[in-house]
Structures are given as C-alpha cells and as structure tokens.
Amino acid sequence: MPADDGSIDSDIEAYLAAHERKTLLRFITCGSVDDGKSTLIGRFLYESKLVFEDQLAALEADSKTLGTQGGELDFALLVDGLQAEREQGITIDVAYRFFSTPRRTFIVADTPGHEQYTRNMVTGASTAQLAVVLVDARKGVLTQTRRHTYLVALLGIRHLVLAVNKLDLVGYSREVFEEIESQYRRFAAEVGVDDVVCIPLSALRGDNITAPSPNTPWYEGPTLIEHLETVPVDDERQAKPFRMPVQWVNRPDPEFRGFSGLIVSGVIHPGDPVRILPSGRTSVVSRIVTFDGDLPEASAGQSVTLTLAEEIDVSRGDVIAAADSAPALADQFEAHVIWMADTEMLPGRPYLMKIGTLTVGLVIGPPKYRINVDTLEHAAAKTLTLNEIGVCNVSVDRPIPFDPYRVNRDMGGFIVIDRLSNETVGAGLLHFALRRAHNIHWQAIEVNKAAHARLKGQEPTVVWFTGLSGAGKSTIANIVERKLHEMGRHTYLLDGDNVRHGLNRDLGFTDADRVENIRRVAEVAALMVDAGLIVLVSFISPFRTERAMARERVAEGEFLEVYVDTPLAVAEARDHKGLYAKARRGELPNFTGIDSPYEPPESPELRLDTTRLSPEEAADRVIAALQERGRLG
C-alpha cells in the first residue's frame, strides 16, 4: 500500500480533514465455498496496516495450528471469528470489517459461500453498493456463483467485480482466466448486470490486490484496490424523493413533539411541505433537530428528528414523505420472495412483514413460479423451500406506503417473520401493487352481525374442536349441536371430512394443503358468525399458527378453542376408519401423528380428556363453557 498522504504528527487537522472528505463504499464478498473470500478480506486488512502487532503475532500462531496454508500466514483467520468457522474452514456468519486507503474508506461484508447460509449472504447484500464475486480458478463458475450473482442483481447491486482467485494454482493461465470471464459475463448479462470488471488474482499471494502482478503481464486492467477506490459511488438516494419512516415519536416534555427516524432517500429543509402516510395528512417541517443542534438541511443516511408546523397524529411505522411525490398505498402486491427457513413456505399461512419500521400481518400466495438460479428458467412450484426464490402475490392486513424495490430499496424491501417463533424466515422485494386491490371495496350492509344475533337471541361464537384423528372431535361436536338444537340455539357444524367432499375437495394432505384447508374453513366460520350462528368446527387443524389465524378472524370472546386431548395410542386403538393402520403401512403419507406433526394447544379455553370423559360428559362441558361465557343468550 502507498504511504498515507496525511501525517498525524505534522498536521493533525489536515489529516482529519482529509479523512472526512473520503467517500465510503459498502461492498460484499460472495461466491462458492472455499473460493477465498475471507482470505481476500484478511489481505485487505493486512495491506491497509490495520493489523496490530499483537494481532499479527496471534495470526502467526493461529496459522500454524488452525491455518490451511501449511504454516504460512492464513489471512482468512483475521475474519473467520467463529470457532465453528475456524474448525470447518468456512464462513457461517456475516462478518463486517472496516478498512481505509488514502482515497476511500470501506465497509466490507464477508458473506457465507455454503448454500445452507445463503440467507446470511442476502443480509450482507441488502446494504451493499458493490459485490466482489470470487471464483476458484480451478473450479470455474459454479451453481453457487450463479446463485449469488442472481441475488446481488435482484437486490439492486449494479457494480460487480469477478475476482478469479487462486490463479497461482493454475500457473497464472490467461486461457483459464479468459474462459471463466467469458462464461461469467454471459450469465451476468442474462440477469441484467452489465457493469462487470474481471480481475485475475491470488488473495493468498497478493497478486493484483494492491499492485500489478508480474505473474500476469497479459492483464492490463486495474488492481482490485484501484478499482474499489475509483468505482463511482454517488449516493443516488439523495436525488430521490424524500422518505423517512418514523422510528420513534420523541416526547421528552409536554412542549416538544418530534418524529425521529433514518432518512432513507431525498433531502429535507425547514419549510418543506410533507405528507404523512398512511393517513395522507399534510404539514410543513418546522425544525430538523439533532443531538448537536438544529440543521438547515438533512439528507439520505442521516438520523434526525423532525418537528411539524401542525399537531398531526403520527406513529411509529408511518412514513413522512415529500408532499408532491409521496409513495403509493396498497395492501396487495406482486413480489420476489427469497425463502430462508429450513421449514417450507406455506401459502395462506399468516406471517408478519417488517418493512421499514412498520410490522404488519402478511399472507403469501402460491408461487407464480420458482426461479432456477442455475438456468434462470421459471419452474412451477406449490411452495418455496430453503434458499429458493419465487415470484408470489402477497397481501397485508392494512394499506402500507411503499415504493417498488427497483426505485427505493428501503421502501420496497421487507423481511418475513414467523408469528410464533419470531424468527426471520424470508425476505422479499415488492414489484408493484395489484390493480385488483383498487377494485375491491367493502359494501355497507344494514343487517349486521349484531342484528342477526338479536334475532336469534344468542351470541355468535366459533367452537373450534382440535385433536388427533380418532380423538372424538366429530362425535362430541355432533352431540353438542344436538343439545344446542334442543335448546333452540341456531348452529352449524363444519366437519373436516364433510367439508373435503365439497369446498375443499381439491386439497390433499401436505402441510401446504392443510394450511389452505384451515384458511378456507376459518373464512367460512367467520361468515357464519357474522350471520349470528354458533359454529362448531371439527378439524384436526394440526398447526397452532392456523388455529391462531382462525381465532383472529372473529372478534375477541367469539372463539372457544376445545382441545380434545387423546393420547396417540388411544386414538390409534380406536381407529374405526382404519386410517392409522394404513398410515403405518405407508399407504397414507403425511398422516397427522404418524409422519406429520400435531401441535397441541398451549392455552385452550377448554381441554377434554377423553380417556376420563364419555362423549356425553364432554359435550356437557362444552355447553357449560358456552353458558358461563354468556354465549347462549
């Protein structure tokens, strides 16, 4: 590396001023397993003089015991901090590192190469401006190389560097390099990336990293660091319309009310008109407040507090936007979905979407198609599994402000969260709002649920029976309905077997089909509650998430979950339909309790132990529970 152009000893102010003027480049390293990503970053840190003497001594010692270079310095150990990574020689987590040269500062994310950790790579790419895709010269372009290239293109990264690494292991062959370059450029063009710089290098030996290598006299392009120092990184976000998702309503005292957040695009000044979404209210910015005092201007990348001229109701998750170019509002979209969980994506299952600072309910529809990242072909799919990418329609439980991801990454990118575990299971990129959403409106109806309930003299309720096959759900539900009918109550029984003869006859018994089975029944039950009925629902309904969704479809107090608790051995011994015997013989795949899971309720309103209660006694307990809650009028 050349010597730094500022001297701390001679002129500290000039040194600091020079460093303040440096631009920042965020980039990622990606590619397949063992292509040398961590070694490359370690080399950057070493060449940038950011490795202290004690770290260098530790590196020398670790290289002898944990390294993969026969005792020579193993620069990857500077980055692979997890013990599991050192033992396996692979990167698992996303490691962020900072380094600086005289011309620019850098934040680099070392992302995992193994297919199992593609989700971590997506995390690292979400904020990057450039991607360095490494390829082992001995192996060439692999499936994971194409997968990562497709992902970085999908995530909006338009500057790519193809680093053909380990060229020393193929004798610095020009022919090998040019063949890999040709193959890669064809694929990059197919995914819409034209800005590709190809560099032959050896991260371990330092060839073409910071200085031209005498081992590649045929290469006349820039070194890697030269390109990283000069690639344009003008912040396009500042030229876009103003957007600031509200992170926090700042009320330190009764006299001050501001709205804090990170400006994700545009520029704002006191006096600028703004629009608050989703409410649509407008106002004018009074002040731009920071810890260091008020600002005359703030732009993308700054965290500030804005005060408004009028008292307007603004909450966390709202977006403050330029009044004359506000984002759109919608609740149904087409989107790319990148699935990151070991459990498959289940269309129709309720998830959570976190977009900006807002969290809303989310349902993902069946994939329109799944993308084969190796060939870019569109393949039919009913669901998405780990690391798969598909295009789906998605819907949220309220209109949200958004910009298409290609226009604004912060306003169009979201993550998918499991409602029960709170784990991130996917990521998505919004394309556009679905037009059909604008054609569907609620029709005002004069005879409402309350009117139906008064006429029937009862409180409409869903009584949801859940349990294993053979537990006795249908038997008990049938007795409950007979007794309620004798009492003059208005009821309807939705039985799992009966519904599959008509409404759900097109569904099988995969997890995805089970989710859709319950979604449809929950919607029907909610309509029947709206009609004032007491609805008895007898379904195995094996998943807690779908039972929670069914509960949310009706008002609080209108849902009674009844767990018909019967041990598997007892249910199997009853087996009057012979289903367990078929499942044991492998004739009924995906049978609940045998090769498909059942998730017992954690806090049902009523638990019926059918090893101790007769069906009549169990039914009486259900009716007593309805009476205690005032549901029978």
Summarize the structure.
This protein is an alpha+beta fold.
Structural account:
- With 633 residues, the chain is an alpha+beta fold.
- The chain is built from 17 helices and 29 strands.
User: Which second-level CATH architecture of the largest domain applies?
Assistant: 3-Layer(aba) Sandwich
Kindly give the count of domains: 4
CATH superfamily of the largest domain: P-loop containing nucleotide triphosphate hydrolases
The largest sheet is: 8 strands, antiparallel
Mean pLDDT: 85
The SS-based structural class is alpha+beta
- What's the alpha carbon Rg, rounded to whole Å? 30 Å
> What is the overall number of helices?
17
Relative strand content: 25-35%
Terminal CA distance: 84 Å
Shape: globular
What is the CATH fold-level name of the largest domain?
Answer: Rossmann fold
Spans of at least 5 consecutive residues whose pLDDT stays below 50 are: 1-8, 80-93
| Proportion of residues in helical segments | 25-40%
Number of strands: 29
Give the CATH level 1 class of the largest domain.
Answer: Alpha Beta
